[in-house]
Write a structure and sequence with these properties.
The chain is an alpha/beta fold and 235 residues long. The protein folds into three domains: 33 residues; 71 residues, no CATH class; 112 residues, 3-Layer(aba) Sandwich (Trna Endonuclease, Chain: A, domain 1). It contains eight helices and five strands; from the N terminus they run αααβββαβαβααα. A hairpin with a 2-residue loop joins strand 2 and strand 3. Helix 1 crosses helix 2 and helix 4 packs parallel to helix 5. About 4% of the residues have low confidence.
Length: 235
């Protein structure tokens, strides 16, 4: 006796295979007869895909630029956005930056990495001054995360006691208040460009990567345009 639904499944599978083979045969026949049209379609599709990726990346850069363009670091952001802004500022300064999120951060809000060095960042979206107790808590967080260096970033400012606590610590701690962070932000205002491929990113690409991108783009555009011109001339 056949298993339940065996014939239905077998018939469906057979139909799917037969349909796929027929479609492949038709496609092969079409490509053989219309190779030029197929090459134009492939070139156009490749070019549009490449352009779509560039537009998506530019949209992401513009979104980040809009995030950083707000006037006040304290009034225009909430605590979570401030962490994201801090991470993005350091990315634009050449760091790899990761926002740790609320769970399991152990007092470290952003992790930075550059030149083989790892740095823990604590972000305080405060209006009141930062005192020494918060610096000591940050030291504990760095120790728990096994990091030897940390940046304490705030929208506020540090008291004299906080500065002494950071200076006396055996950990390397850099204090960055709201004014300093605003100055850094102003220096990177021109980083977000509107080109499809930012000049700075293009300059940083290895030569082989540049050659590969240009070859891909020129090849796709050349195939599409060349095929269209040929069709127009022979029509």
């Amino acid at each position: 006796m056949w298993p339940k639904n065996f014939l239905l499944k077998f018939g469906g599978g057979f139909f799917l295979i037969a349909t796929s083979l027929a479609a492949a045969n038709l496609l092969s026949d079409f490509l053989t007869r219309h190779a030029l049209v197929a090459s134009i379609g492939a070139g156009t599709l490749g070019s549009l895909t490449f352009l779509g990726v560039l537009l998506a990346k530019r949209a992401a850069r513009v979104k980040k630029a809009n995030l950083l363009a707000r006037n006040s670091l304290y009034k225009d952001y909430d605590a979570t956005e401030f962490e994201a802004v801090t991470a993005e500022i350091y990315r634009q300064m050449g760091y790899r930056a990761k926002v740790t999120g609320k769970t399991g951060d152990l007092g470290i809000d952003v992790l930075l990495a550059k030149d083989g060095e790892k740095i823990g960042v604590q972000c305080k979206h405060y209006k009141k001054p930062i005192g020494p107790s918060l610096i000591r808590e940050f030291v504990g967080a760095l120790e728990g995360a096994r990091l030897e260096k940390g940046y304490f970033v705030t929208t506020s400012h540090f008291t004299a006691g906080a500065k002494k606590a950071a200076k006396r610590s055996t950990w390397s701690i850099k204090l960055i208040d709201g004014i300093t962070l605003s100055q850094i932000l102003n220096r990177i205002d021109d980083v977000f460009e509107r080109e499809l491929i930012p000049s700075q990113r293009w300059r940083e690409l290895p030569p082989l990567a540049k050659i590969g991108l240009l070859t891909f783009l020129v090849g796709d555009v050349g195939v599409a345009v060349g095929g269209m011109v040929y069709l127009l001339l022979t029509a």
